[in-house]
Amino acid sequence: MPNLTLDDPTANRLADLFSALSDPTRVRIVAALMEGEVSVGDLVQQIGPTKSAISHQLRGLKDKRLIRARKQGRQVFIAIADEHVTELFQKGLEHARHS
What we know:
The protein is of the alpha+beta class. It is 61% helix and 14% strand.
């Protein structure tokens, strides 16, 4: 078993990571991104309710480094930041469905 003693900065980053997924809208956003990169407009259509509300949630996910954004012309495309986010989300989903 690995050493799981955490220093304060690591414990805070881990808590921030889990808090980023503590909102149902953010969870739905990450779920939508599991299929691949999506435009903000498509996310709004898929998840709703408004572009402003989705943009607010995207900022939080980006600040926590769970997603990345790419601009192409006037459109912004969003994707999962890396495979760690995908793995964490999949494990959490398995646990939620198992419970």
